[in-house]
Structure to design on (490 residues):
């Protein structure tokens, strides 16, 4: 009789709790975007002009008094922390295992979000910014690294199965947190205030910690039932830091493609709510937040379907180029036309969904399972370096003097041109990626039938070896022992 871990339902139970790891943390991540007016609002307002930020004719919004530069620094420090921490985190996960990672990094998200919420109680104090930056630093240390563990668990349980679908579902759950943030946070803040809103986000991170406990138990039991716990541990002991220098050109082109694409997404979303209010007439803070959140709405709706589609037809490299090409018009329209912003944010959400489902699941195809955490950590690090620099550039473009005044349209146009430059760079690196991939066997653009045929043989030794530059053996590998054990259910 087959063990429960060999059945399809078991890996989808693992997937559900794995998805819940980042639901709360993604809700917390963009709370500043929804409450940008409050973060940049005046410390005090005259009694005759105090508003709650919900009126289109508001004169003054009372808030924390941050400048645009200080506000964007909240996002930049998150990105920079990820850039530094995820490299070490990925290596430690490969050496010490998934269970170590989910406990440590989910705890850091709870601690970081709690300190961030605590900082809001020091309004008008010199301690405000240091506390909130410290909270974002710890939160970033946990959330970015937690995503690596999440991807590593997903790749282990779904390699050779519904891999893109599984990645799409983890993204969908994360984006569900983001979507609910854009729909609920402003209403909650208007009724209960900023402090209680930030503490509510902390409670959602606690939910992620309990999910970490559950997925850790399921992963441990499942690996023992499959007889792979010892095999993975043995492979992990062979992982060496110096193996990083042997990563191939194709891997780095994939990483750069991810970085440039995300450079045009996250910095835009961070300031999108204020951009919509400044450029377009008739949008209050709540409506602007809904429109900005449409990027995540589209991703939430499409992620699973897009994952199934890419699992079926493959062509991940081609999709990477198409996503970048189709993103170009969005920033042009936002910069130089008055096309309704909702059209642009939905459009951006569609291309983002395809990009996330094609780019990130490509990494497990070119590196061994035992070293996947290291590879994911490096990819996340480069991505976050780019996003952090982009947030700082955007902060400089938008100005640093006034905390609540309307930003001139020409500054917003320069920001959109910067987003365009990143998207064009993404097109260049994605095109180069396809060229190199074609010369090395076309793994990323294989159709499903070819991929299955290549995976049908016995698992090679490369899944238990360090990262190597000659990827031909690695990328043609089968699903490993876990797939062989799971084939009975098919």
């Amino acid at each position: 009789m087959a063990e429960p871990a060999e059945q399809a339902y078991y890996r989808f139970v693992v997937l559900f709790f794995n998805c819940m790891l980042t639901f709360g943390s993604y809700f917390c991540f963009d709370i500043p975007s929804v409450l940008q007016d409050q973060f940049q609002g005046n410390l005090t307002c005259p009694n005759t002009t105090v508003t709650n930020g919900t009126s289109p004719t508001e004169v003054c919004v009372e808030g924390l008094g941050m400048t645009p530069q200080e506000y964007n620094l909240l996002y930049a420090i998150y990105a920079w922390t990820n850039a530094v921490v995820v490299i070490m985190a990925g290596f430690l996960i490969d050496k010490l295992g998934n269970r170590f990672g989910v406990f440590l990094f989910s705890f850091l998200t709870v601690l970081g979000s709690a300190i961030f919420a605590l900082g809001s109680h020091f309004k008008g104090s010199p301690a405000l910014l240091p506390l909130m930056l410290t909270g974002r630093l710890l939160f970033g240390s946990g959330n970015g690294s937690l995503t690596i563990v999440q991807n590593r668990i997903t790749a282990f349980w779904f390699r050779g199965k519904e891999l893109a679908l599984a990645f799409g579902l983890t993204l969908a759950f994360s984006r569900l947190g983001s979507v609910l943030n854009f729909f609920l946070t402003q209403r909650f803040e208007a009724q209960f205030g900023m402090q209680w809103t930030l503490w509510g986000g902390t409670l959602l991170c606690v939910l992620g910690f309990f999910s970490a406990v559950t997925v850790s138990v399921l992963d441990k039991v499942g690996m023992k039932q499959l007889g792979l716990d010892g095999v993975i541990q043995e492979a992990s002991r062979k992982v060496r830091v110096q193996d990083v220098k042997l990563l191939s050109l194709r891997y780095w082109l994939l990483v750069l493609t991810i970085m440039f694409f995300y450079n045009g997404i996250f910095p835009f979303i961070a300031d999108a709510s204020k951009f919509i209010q400044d450029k377009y007439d008739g949008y209050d803070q709540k409506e602007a937040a809904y429109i900005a959140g449409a990027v995540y709405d589209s991703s939430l709706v499409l992620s699973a379907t897009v994952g199934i589609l890419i699992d079926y037809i493959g062509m991940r490299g081609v999709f990477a180029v198409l996503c970048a090409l189709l993103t170009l018009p969005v920033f042009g329209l936002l910069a130089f036309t008055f096309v309704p912003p909702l059209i642009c944010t939905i459009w951006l959400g569609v291309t983002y969904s395809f990009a996330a489902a094609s780019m990130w699941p490509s990494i497990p195809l070119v590196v061994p399972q035992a070293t996947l955490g290291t590879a994911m950590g490096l990819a996340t690090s480069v991505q976050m370096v780019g996003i952090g620099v982009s947030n700082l550039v955007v902060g400089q473009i938008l100005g640093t003097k006034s905390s609540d005044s309307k930003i001139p349209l020409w500054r917003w146009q320069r920001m959109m041109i910067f987003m365009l430059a990143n998207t064009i760079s993404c097109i260049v690196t994605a095109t180069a990626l396809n060229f190199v991939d074609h010369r090395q066997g076309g793994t990323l653009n294989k159709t499903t039938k070819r991929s299955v045929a290549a995976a049908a043989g016995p698992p090679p030794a490369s899944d238990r070896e360090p990262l190597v530059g000659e990827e031909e053996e690695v990328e043609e590998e089968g699903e490993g022992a876990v797939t062989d054990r799971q084939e009975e259910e098919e």
Summary: Residues 48-58, 449-490 have pLDDT under 50 and may be disordered. Strands lie at 50-51, 60-61.
